[in-house]
């Protein structure tokens, strides 16, 4: 093993140790998420995470890969994603060249469906990874439902069948994290193979901890007001409620402005574009500005 | 000591069957998962057990409320058996502000305004009456007209095609292999056209009472013509997805199913609130994205029209085209001068008059012109409103 050998065997961590370990990596998970990760490692099941955009679903996979010391392999889903882009593809130009070369030298062509002609796409790479990998299948709801069918064999048994080669099984089963923004209903067959966790917006204390870790220059009192403002903003009927990513950006922006000499409440208001990315929402927010940022 | 273990096991089985009874679907492999994790690492306390159960059994956040109720009843309050199943809700994303369900349900307090008093239930064969045959023939025409007018977009997934922008290496290679590596002909892949979605939102409030049956028949023809890509919702004071109910190929049965589902027919209008409700569910907005959106409504909004105008604008941004069909617009003297209609006109691609099936057919036939024309052209197509018609 390489330097990753120093890490802990992931399945042996219990929820609390897991929470502490994640925290050291800068990810503040609540008990539910820690239990979900713990169970996913323990049962060796894919973990399906749902939640509003910006609550840190994708981040779970990358922090997990650091904690368990495995490579992160990411498959970003999009409409029209097919097996050639996700599982494997044959390298046709290379095969064709091989035939021509063999012909010009007067040799036997031989088997053209060998491993050397196989282009490995993320899912296959995750199976063949020596020490196991952390596989992130991001925004599965963006792929069409045909693609979910491709995934079933993979998620159920951690294997892929390549007609010309046979079945490829995982040497070390990968840790699989799927995320979804819930823009469409996933198939039951897919959900049945996964553990499921809905990540809610963080409560006040957790969000403050996240901000303090992510924005070093942020003062204690400012963080307090900022978190309170974000929590209240989430209570408004907005088109897009700000996630943690946005509140961190907001804190960073406001801190930078405050260091440049703006008074804190003014800095907060001027950096609002980092929290709210919709013109309509901004207007709604400015209507409530006094109650939201009055005491910030 | 087998006894406490047997007791615990019994309690757990009771919990699982109570979950099923409350409508939370738990597949057998998931139940096995729960038992396996309890066996592998016994939960420290009740909270841990809660998370174990929730993560292994639940697979849809929409069922979280029911799950929590059953869990509380079985483990926190000591085995109450009478778990009330939650009402089936159309928009099953919980409001993330807190546990309180904020479904507006002003209808609940009004007795007798349900399906029995609904205009939807007053037609059947009786209402078809003498012009039954004529109506049926218009509906046949509509069914034939829809597929030709619905918009298409290039698909994201390439397929083998006669001509295309990419080489189809797989096919070229397979054919070359047959000819000892000699490339005899090139094959190509292209993005074949894929039908866009059609989203129909039908106003069923009281002001449209006389038109509602025909508007629903119109929606039914669209569903018959393009079943895989059509979605139909009704709205009055609340939003109802009626696609499954209206999908029955037999018209009368479909309409009867719809009248069983729509509980707010002939009531008040809250177009703005209903559209906002539609837009607040990500799964529904996904239906509107890139779709041809048709709203069948008179646009008579009582009270503040601001939410309706904002919702229409967002709908227009989401969809491919936004078409508004109003029974009022059938009149040649009509001009959209009510404050709500005037304010939202700039968001519309077309404002047409539909009050029954023949006018519907005429408007359906005008769709290709709307689809090929510029966006948000409704204001340009209509004559400018005369100032004399401005209501107070």
What does this structure look like?
The complex is a heterodimer of chains A (296) and B (392). By secondary structure, chain A is of the alpha/beta class. Chain A is built from 14 helices and nine strands. Chain A has helices at 15-24, 31-43, 57-68, 83-86, 92-105, 122-128, 145-157, 188-192, 204-214, 220-234, 244-259, 264-270, 279-287, 289-293, and strands at 47-51, 71-76, 88-90, 118-120, 133-138, 159-162, 166-169, 175-180, 195-199. A five-stranded parallel beta sheet of chain A has the order 2-5-8-1-9, with helices on both faces. A two-stranded antiparallel ribbon of chain A has the order 3-4. In chain A, strands 6-7 form a two-stranded antiparallel sheet. In chain A, a hairpin with a 3-residue loop joins strand 6 (159-162) and strand 7 (166-169). The longest helix of chain A is centred in the C-terminal third of the chain and has 16 residues, at 244-259. Mean pLDDT of chain A is 86; it is low at 1-7. Chain B has a six-stranded mixed beta sheet with strand order 8-7-6-9-10-11. Chain B has a three-stranded antiparallel beta sheet with strand order 2-4-3. In chain B, strand 7 (230-235) and strand 8 form a beta hairpin. Chain B starts with a helix and ends in an 11-residue tail after the last helix. At the A-B interface, helix 2, helix 5, helix 8 and strand 9 of A face helix 2, helix 3, helix 7, helix 11 and helix 12 of B.
Mean pLDDT of chain A: 86
Overall pLDDT level of chain B: 80
Write down the oligomeric state. heterodimer
Strand order of the largest sheet of chain A: 2-5-8-1-9
- The stretches of 5 or more residues of chain B where confidence is low (pLDDT under 50) are 79-130, 384-392
- The total count of helices of chain A amounts to 14
Main sheet record of chain A: 5 strands, parallel
Number of strands of chain A: 9
Q: What would you report as the Rg of chain A, rounded to the nearest angstrom?
A: 24 Å
**Residue share in helix of chain B:** 40-55%
């Amino acid at each position: 093993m390489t330097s990753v050998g120093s890490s802990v065997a992931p399945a042996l961590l219990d929820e609390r140790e897991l929470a502490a370990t994640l925290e050291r990596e800068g990810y503040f998970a609540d008990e539910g998420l820690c239990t979900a990760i713990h169970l996913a490692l323990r049962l060796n099941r894919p973990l399906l995470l749902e939640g509003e955009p910006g609550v840190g679903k994708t981040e779970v996979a990358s922090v997990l890969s650091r904690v368990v010391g495995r490579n992160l392999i990411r498959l970003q889903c999009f409409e029209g994603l097919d097996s050639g882009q996700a599982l494997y593809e044959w390298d046709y130009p290379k095969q064709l060249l091989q035939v021509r070369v063999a012909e010009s030298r007067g040799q036997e062509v031989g088997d053209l469906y060998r491993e050397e002609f196989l282009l490995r796409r993320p899912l296959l790479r995750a199976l063949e990874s020596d020490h196991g990998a952390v596989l992130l299948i991001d925004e599965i709801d963006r792929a069409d439902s045909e693609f979910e069918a491709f995934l079933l064999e993979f998620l159920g048994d951690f294997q892929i069948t390549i007609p010309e080669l046979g079945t490829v099984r995982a040497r070390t089963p990968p840790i699989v994290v799927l995320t979804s923004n819930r823009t469409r209903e996933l198939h039951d067959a897919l959900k049945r193979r996964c553990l499921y966790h809905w990540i809610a917006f963080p409560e006040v204390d957790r969000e403050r901890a996240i901000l303090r870790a992510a924005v070093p220059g942020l003062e204690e009192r400012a963080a307090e007001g900022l978190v309170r403002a974000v929590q209240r903003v989430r209570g408004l009927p907005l088109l897009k409620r700000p996630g943690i990513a946005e509140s961190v950006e907001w804190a960073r922006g406001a801190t930078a402005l405050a260091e440049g000499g703006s008074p804190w409440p003014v800095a907060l208001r001027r950096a609002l574009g980092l929290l709210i990315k919709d013109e309509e929402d901004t207007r709604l927010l400015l209507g409530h500005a006094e109650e939201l940022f009055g005491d910030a | 000591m087998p006894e406490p273990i047997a007791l615990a096991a019994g309690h757990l089985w009771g919990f699982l069957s109570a979950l099923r009874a409350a409508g939370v679907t738990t597949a057998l492999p998931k139940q096995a998962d729960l038992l396996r994790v309890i066996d592998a690492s016994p939960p420290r306390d009740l909270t841990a057990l809660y998370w174990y159960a929730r993560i292994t059994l639940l697979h849809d956040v929409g069922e979280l409320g029911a799950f929590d109720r059953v869990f509380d009843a079985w483990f926190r309050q000591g085995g109450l058996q009478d778990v009330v199943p939650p009402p089936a809700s159309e928009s099953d994303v919980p409001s993330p502000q807190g546990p309180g369900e904020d479904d507006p349900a002003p209808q609940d307090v009004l007795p007798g305004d349900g399906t029995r008093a609904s205009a939807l239930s007053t037609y059947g064969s009786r209402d078809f009456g003498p012009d039954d045959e004529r109506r049926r023939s218009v509906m046949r025409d509509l069914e034939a007209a829809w597929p030709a007018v619905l918009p298409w977009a290039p698909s994201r997934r390439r397929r083998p095609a006669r001509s295309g922008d990419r080489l189809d290496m797989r096919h070229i290679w397979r054919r070359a292999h047959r000819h000892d590596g000699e490339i005899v002909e090139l094959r190509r892949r292209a993005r074949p056209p894929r039908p866009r979605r059609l989203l129909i939102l039908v106003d069923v409030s009281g002001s449209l009472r006389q038109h509602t049956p025909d508007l629903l028949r119109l929606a039914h023809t669209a569903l018959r013509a393009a079943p895989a890509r059509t979605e139909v919702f009704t709205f009055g004071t609340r939003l109802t997805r009626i696609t499954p109910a209206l999908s029955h190929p037999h018209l009368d049965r479909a309409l009867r199913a719809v009248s069983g589902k729509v509980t707010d027919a002939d009531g008040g209008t809250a177009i703005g609130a209903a559209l906002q409700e539609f837009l607040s569910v990500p799964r529904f907005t996904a239906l509107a994205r890139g779709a041809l959106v048709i709203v069948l409504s008179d646009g008579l909004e009582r009270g503040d029209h601001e939410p309706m105008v904002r919702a229409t604008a967002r709908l227009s941004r989401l969809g491919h085209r936004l078409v508004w069909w109003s029974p009022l617009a059938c009149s040649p003297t009509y001009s959209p001068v009510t404050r709500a209609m005037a304010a939202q006109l700039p968001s519309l691609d077309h404002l047409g008059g539909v009050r029954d099936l023949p006018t519907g057919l005429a408007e359906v036939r005008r769709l290709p012109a709307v689809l090929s024309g510029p966006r948000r052209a409704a204001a340009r197509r209509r004559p400018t409103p005369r100032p004399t018609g401005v209501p107070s």
